[in-house]
Each structure stands twice: as C-alpha cells, then as structure tokens.
Amino acid sequence: MAGFIISARTICGIMCFFPFLIYKLRRRHLSIDESIEDLLQSHNNLMPIRYSYSSIKKVTKSFKEKLGQGGYGSVFKGKLKSGHHVAIKMLDQTKGNGQDFINEVATIGRIHHVNVVQLIGFCSEGSKRALIYEFMPNGSLDKYISARQEENIISLSWEKMLGIVLGVGRGIEYLHRGCNTQILHFDIKPHNILLDDNFVPKISDFGLAKFFSTDDSIVSLTAAPRGTIGYIAPEMIYKNIGGISNKADVYSFGMLLLEITGRKKAINALRDHSSQFYFPSWIYDRLCHGEDIEIGDATDDEKTIAKKLVIVALWCIQMNPVDRPSMSKVVDMLEDDIEVLQMPPRPFLSPPELPIDDTSFDTSHSETSTTYPSESRSCNSVASSTTIIKVKEN
Predict the structure, then answer these.
(1) What band does 180 get if pLDDT is binned at 50, 70 and 90?
(2) Each residue of 255-275: pLDDT tens digit?
(3) Does the annotation mark 297 as catalytic?
(4) What is the pTM of this model?
(5) Which residues does the annotation place in the binding site?
(6) In this protein, which residues make up the domain named Protein kinase (predicted)?
(7) Binding-site sequence positions for ATP
C-alpha cells in the first residue's frame, strides 16, 4: 500500500512538473517576442520584414541547400518571390536567451552602408528564430585567406586584398562614427567578413555588438567579455591594460590584417621550432632590421601593399588601447603612400595582471590563441627604409 502511495505521488509530481516546464518555456519565448516587439516599435521606420516560419520553409525549399554551420546554428540559401537570393541563418534554439538575436535585428536593421551586410528580414515564432540577409555569393573572407590550391578557390591578389580591407575599415569607421549611436562590433574576424559577387566586403554577425553614446570614449560592459580568442583585444581579458572602447575593434582589425599578410602559411616551419613563436614579433623584427621576409615573390607594387598592411596592423595591435589609431586614422593610413607611414613601437607588453577569472569569459567563439612576449622595444626606422617583402605564390 505504501509503495502504491509513493508511486501515485511520483506520477502526480511528474504530471505537475511538465505543465510547469511548458509554462516556463512559453513565458521565456513570450518575453523574447515582447522584447522584439518593443524593439520594432521604437525603430518602426527602419523595420525589416517579418516572415512566418512557414514562409521561411518555402523560401528555402524546406532547407534544401545548406551554406554553412556555426556555433549559432545553420545558414541556408533561399530565394524570395522577387527572385533575389538570400542567406537565412537559423539560430540554434538551445544557444543563449535570445539577446544575440535581438542585437542582430536592432543593429543591422538600422544600418545602411555598402560595407555592412543588409538585413532583409527575420522570423520569430516561439523557439523558431531566423535572420534573412542579402546573399553573398563569394562567401566569407576566411576561406580566401586559408585557401589551398587543391581546394579550387581562387587566390586574391594583394591589390584585391587591399580593396577588401579598405572596405572593412570604412565599414567599422561607419559603425564607430557614422551612426546616431556608436556601435562596437566586438567580433571582427575573417569569418564575419562576407564578399559579394564583386568581392565588395560586408561586415556581418552583430550578435555581440553593443550600442553606446557617441560621446563615450570608454564604455562599460555588464556581461562577461565574449569574442574570438586571437582577435579579441587584450583589455577585454586583462585588467588594468586600459578601458574598453572602440579601440577593441581596431585591435581585431589589426589581427585580421596580420592574418591576411601571413595567409600563405610560409611561417609554419618557424612555428614548429618554438611554442612561443608570435608572428607580429617575428615580422616586426625583420622590418626593423631591414631583412627580407620570405613569404614569396611579387611585383614591387605588391611588395608595397603587403608592407603597408603589416605596418598598419602593427599600429592597430598595440597593447595599450591609447596607442592604437582610430579607425578613421587607420583608413587614412591604408590610403596614404607608404613613405609617410612611421613604424610603431613594438606592439606587445606583458599583461600587468592575471586574466579575469576564466569561468566568466565566454570562449565559445574561440579559434586560435595568441602568445604575448614579455619585452617591449621600439624600432627607430621608418616605413620608407629599404625593407623588402617578398610575396611568393604557392
């Protein structure tokens, strides 16, 4: 009899628990929907189109053509009634609380710039959330940086790469200074740079973006820092390096430039001989000493472009945010003749304190790690010295 009573109570408890769980989940989705509605009401003049989930299925032909997969979910190709192709990002319902989705709609939905991807519409029906973007036929920049001959991906010229990084720089400059509010992206990296059919770059993925007043030179983040290891600015991780500002995006842009410069992976042999090998340190030393950087053969114009990208990158990745240029200055440097560019100080210092507690740092976006050497020296030479950078095509 006692066993029967215990079993009955257990069954009763389970029957009560499931309705409560369903109620909580519904309340959670309702809260997200309410936040989205509040957002759209406050920006109704810039409101992107809202699609039903059934419309999303029709546009993608039941998710027939998958373009990619990431920590956020999956991207599918679709075609609107107008005949325009789109990329539809289906967000994983198990990731986050919907704030990244709201950030994306709030940010891209109000931006119109040639170097920022256009948000055409979105879907939010309970647990089903999707973002509909203009389709970028040439994919993301990362595949061109790491492309190998056997992958059958065209190799972009240094002139084309300069045009791409200039477009990215102008896009970031617009986010920092061209809007009514200052928008910090916090996740600039090659994977988040999309290329249209003419290889015009478009900044994408604003899930980590934050809005601040244009008067704010230093900003405050209430949540734990998030981003991609290897691109995230050191002040986002370490204490007392400097305040968080739009210079965090400048740092990430500098790391992007360095990855482009080392895209042929010609330094792997050196990397294998030292676990502490750090590409910015290696390339900085060679620029200072006027040594050849053996990354290939190229025309004089291509050598000049590669050298310019390195010098601008080394300015961008200065450890102290105050020492980094603004994105406006970065764009000017990329457009200037190389003869007027000065070499920066050695771009790394020992972090003054241990990093913030690792348990509070979100590394879900991590890709590569960065080693910071402990020395800080300056190079007195200027960019117009007789340094030769050789660019060798694989």
Answers:
(1) confident
(2) 999 999 876 443 343 444 444
(3) no
(4) 0.78
(5) 89
(6) 61-349
(7) 89
